[in-house]
Design brief:
The complex is a heterodimer. Chain A is mostly helical. Helices cover 63% and strands 0% of the residues of chain A.
């Protein structure tokens, strides 16, 4: 998948968990949880949604280093190259 | 004390012989037999003439003996950190109390806080108590509607919040809050340089108008101090009012149930927006003169273990949802940290499942001690104690000074179940000092909690032959998600505001991490059809109004909701159908149209 396609998948997963989010208005390099009202459970469900779509498991250790939209997309892109 | 049968697998008995510190509560039966509230009260200092002020007991009384000791050890999400000593906390809270009085706010009026876990929140809480105002915390993940409902019902005169929370959740509703005369903003970073929004004050500037040396107001034990909103099955959230005398319970439970002592570093992971985060995240540990760790960040397994190690935490009070998230992060992870200073771990919020207790015994090297209490009780009522064997899954035994029983209701009366193992409602004999004194503006609902001299908790439980209590379920439709009570009515009301929704019924469905997940069932108005887009729109609508802590995470559309003949939505039936359980007595069900 291209970076843009991955970005679309991430935005979709976010909107599954928090459908009130206007994905187009997100700042790619600002912390997602500061821009959105997401609690810990939303965050878990967000990664579960990504896993369901992409079949890529994001480990707890990786998840804790991913704060922004750009972080998540870059991580998925790298995971894709490794496979 | 009861001894476990040899080799019984359901008991965990800790070998305390190698622990340097022997438990504060060594002999449960003796402590219960000898107990008196007067002695418990005498553990505090008090003010002249029988006055009692929570902030004095938590802060000021320590200044002569440990003024230079760290009271609050704050760790931000980023690099910032701040340590506040008992002396500094005494000065800051005096400044807050006198500055708020200087605004013309009268004792007994309500000071609300809506903020993340920042030092200013703790200053506001203790400063409000010191000044004789009623402090009411709100959870920062509430959406605008829960915030409005509570501020409005609680007649908040002052609100301490941040610029972003004010903008997102309060500003648009401010005109509808006539009692709210002062909004005080805690500003940091870029926010501190931006102009103040109209009609607000800056926290630091306000503090500068106060005096650092004013004494705590001489409140009486029966003077209102704290207001905590809690949810029932029906109606708006209830504002449970607590008095300054509650500090006796906060202190005593810190001593016996949390085993607090001088030199401890205590970490309560609950947010002060909930009762645990106030009673035990602020008051109880400070009355013991310990160092209170405050972490601004949200849950993160590695961060949490790192904090336990680095900040040398000795006593840790957390919640089942957090423990289950730690379990997900793996049994190996805690092994990478030095947790040897942690002497005692306790939990509250919902029953701690036995697997979690066993997991902790292996992964953390010690069991987790469950406790039971609720907003109305103000402090811990039933607990597992460090000196007593733990039966995983049990909430433990009543605190010394607390009389608990299992009762059944019949014809407007209650009867105490004499037979161990009988399931009934967990009831408490009134008289403990942190018992709520009313639901604000709702004396009728308050009185309905008491029958035949018992406070009825709404929790179903049983007691075994050894006197240990076991949680069974709720007696009503209240949902418990991540340890927080969620009233279905509040969620249904928000859904009904959506133009497509004709009827709404909200239930909790089991979920492995949260305990229960909020699920909504709706019937649509004519002209609207079920679609994924509509369901998402309903979820979005609910989240915008209620915030993620309260809003449903799933929504399903039904042609009509089951109702009783008198028109009440049968949540019990929705739940039975959702879970594939027997539907029970349907004689009051309205026949389908």
């Amino acid at each position: 998948m291209t970076r843009d396609e991955l970005k679309a998948v991430v935005e979709q997963a976010l909107s599954d968990v928090a459908p009130e989010v206007d994905a187009g208005a997100l700042q790619p390099t600002a912390r997602l949880r500061d821009q959105l009202d997401l609690d810990s459970m939303d965050w878990l469900r967000f990664f579960a949604a990504l896993e369901a779509t992409l079949g890529v498991t994001v480990s707890e250790a990786d998840a804790r280093r991913l704060h922004t939209l750009a972080d998540v997309v870059a991580h998925l892109e790298a995971a894709q190259t490794r496979r | 004390m009861t001894s476990p049968p040899a080799g019984a697998r359901e008991w965990i008995r800790r070998d305390l012989s190698r622990d340097a510190a022997s438990p504060n509560l060594r002999d449960y039966d003796e402590a219960c037999a000898r107990f008196s509230w007067a002695e418990a009260r005498a553990r505090l200092t008090g003010l002249p003439g029988g006055a009692l002020n929570i902030a004095f007991e938590a802060v000021d009384r320590h200044v002569p003996v440990r003024g230079a000791q760290v009271a609050l050890r704050w760790r931000s999400r980023g690099e910032a950190r701040r340590d506040v000593t008992y002396r500094q906390l005494a000065q800051l809270t005096s400044r807050f109390a006198s500055a708020v009085a200087g605004l013309g706010v009268k004792p007994g009026e309500a000071v609300f806080a809506l903020a993340g876990r920042v030092p200013e929140l703790y200053v506001a809480a203790l400063g409000a108590l010191k000044g004789g105002f009623v402090f009411c915390p709100l959870f920062s993940a509430f959406g605008p509607e829960p915030v409005f409902a509570r501020l409005s019902r609680g007649e908040g005169r002052v609100l301490v919040t941040t610029p972003s929370l004010y903008e997102k959740k309060v500003r648009a509703l401010r005109e509808r809050l006539p009692a709210l005369s002062h909004v005080v903003l805690v500003r940091s970073g870029d926010e501190a340089r931006a102009p103040l929004p109209e009609g607000t004050l800056d926290f630091d500037a306000l503090l500068a108008t106060g005096r650092p040396d004013v004494a705590a107001v001489a409140t009486r034990p029966e003077t209102p101090a704290l207001m905590h909103f809690t949810s029932g099955t029906t109606g708006t959230p209830k504002g449970a009012l607590h008095v300054h005398g509650a500090v006796v319970q906060h202190h005593l439970t810190g001593l016996y149930a949390l085993d607090l002592r001088e030199g401890d570093v205590f970490w309560c992971t609950a947010d002060p927006g909930w009762v645990t985060g106030t009673s035990y995240g602020i008051i109880s540990p400070l009355t013991h003169g310990v160092t209170l760790l405050v972490d601004e960040a949200d849950f993160d397994a590695e961060r949490w273990y790192g904090l336990l190690e680095r900040e040398r935490v000795t006593v840790w009070y957390t919640a089942p949802t957090a423990v289950r998230m730690l379990m997900r992060a793996g049994e190996a992870l805690p092994g990478r940290f030095d947790l040897s200073r942690v002497r005692f771990i306790a939990s509250v919020g919902e029953p701690l499942n036995p697997e979690a207790v066993w997991w902790a015994s292996r992964a953390l090297g010690q069991p987790i001690y469950d406790t039971w209490w609720q907003t109305e009780t103000g402090g811990i009522m039933v607990a597992n104690y460090r000196a007593m064997p733990v039966k995983p899954g049990s909430m433990g035994r009543p605190m010394p000074g607390v009389t608990a029983a299992i009762v059944t209701r019949a014809g407007g009366r209650v009867q105490v179940s004499p037979v161990p193992g009988t399931v009934g409602e967990l009831a408490l004999a009134p008289g403990w000092p942190s018992m709520f004194t009313t639901y604000l503006h709702d004396e009728e609902r308050y009185r309905a909690c008491f029958v035949d001299g018992w406070y009825l908790s709404g929790d179903l439980a049983r007691v075994d032959a050894d006197g240990y209590f076991w949680f069974v379920g709720r007696a009503d439709d209240v949902i418990k998600s991540s340890g927080h009570l969620i009233g279905p009515f509040e969620v249904e009301s928000a859904l009904l505001e959506h133009p497509a929704v004709a009827e709404a019924g909200v239930i909790g469905v089991p979920e492995p991490v949260m305990g229960e997940l909020v699920k909504a069932f709706v019937a649509l108005k004519p002209g609207f059809d079920d679609s994924e887009a509509l369901r998402k729109e309903l979820l979005a609508h609910a989240r915008r109004r209620l915030g993620p802590a309260v809003a449903p995470r799933e929504v399903a559309v039904l042609p009509a909701l089951p109702r009783t003949r008198s028109g009440k939505i049968l949540r019990r039936l929705l739940k039975a159908r959702e879970l594939g359980l027997p539907e029970g007595d349907l004689s009051t069900l309205e026949p389908p149209p």
